[in-house]
Specification:
alpha+beta; two-stranded antiparallel sheet; 3 helices; 12 strands
């Protein structure tokens, strides 16, 4: 898969609200969220940056902020969709000059979306001795699936991006859904969610980040 690396860039968000939005404003690419058809709450998730501080990806949330539980352990049935924006980057040298970073792609967005879904749905009631093993196994599976978007686990789903139909790769699991596809302005879009159907979603460039800053 063409990605910046499985471990991912470091988290560049800060603990305060001002620090979080500052990270988004540092990006040299457009951010995506759900389009105006979505009228619910919007919130910032986090951004990821390379070792030199350059913002590489980030996510914006829509709906109810997810609890860190599986569906079966979440009686409130929280509905949310998180949109991941990944900067389109060519293969390049790492900031410290010691290696090569691979190009980003739609698979990069699929991986970040898949790992994002796992981060907010893993079963908290699982015995601690098995929890990390479960998470490692599921993470490896998400990585393998993102590496092969033509796999039968994925289906095609056409959704609007800035008003223009675009083809996404889509899959469901017992924990929610994940999708990934192309954006405008040299970025890749990923998304994950639960309790909110992916079939009626549309994506657009965020014109005002303060709508997410709460």
């Amino acid at each position: 898969m063409e990605t910046t690396g499985r471990a991912g860039p470091q988290d560049a968000s800060a603990s305060g609200a001002d620090g979080v939005i500052d990270g988004y404003l540092m990006a040299d690419f457009p951010w995506y969220g759900l389009d105006e058809a979505f009228t619910g709450p919007r919130w910032l998730v986090r951004v990821g940056a390379a070792a030199d501080g350059r913002v590489e990806h980030g996510a914006t949330g829509h709906g109810e902020e997810p609890s860190f539980r599986s569906d079966a352990e979440d009686p409130d049935g929280r509905s949310f969709a998180v949109v991941v924006t990944v900067a389109g980057r060519p293969g390049r040298s790492s900031p410290d000059g010691t290696g090569i970073l691979e190009a980003t792609s739609v698979s990069s967005a699929a991986w970040l979306a898949g790992s994002g879904l796992l981060s907010c749905t893993w079963p908290t009631r699982m015995d601690l001795a098995f929890r990390q093993s479960w998470l490692d196994q599921q993470t490896a599976t998400a990585w393998e699936l993102a590496d092969d978007l033509d796999n039968s686990a994925w289906s095609a789903l056409t959704l609007p991006v800035d008003g223009t139909p675009a083809e996404f790769r889509y899959r469901e699991s017992e924990y929610g859904w994940v999708l990934a596809g192309p954006g405008q302005g040299g970025v890749h879009i990923g998304a994950y969610g639960r309790g909110m159907s992916a079939y009626g979603l549309g994506f657009s460039v965020i014109k005002d980040l303060t709508a997410y800053d709460r």
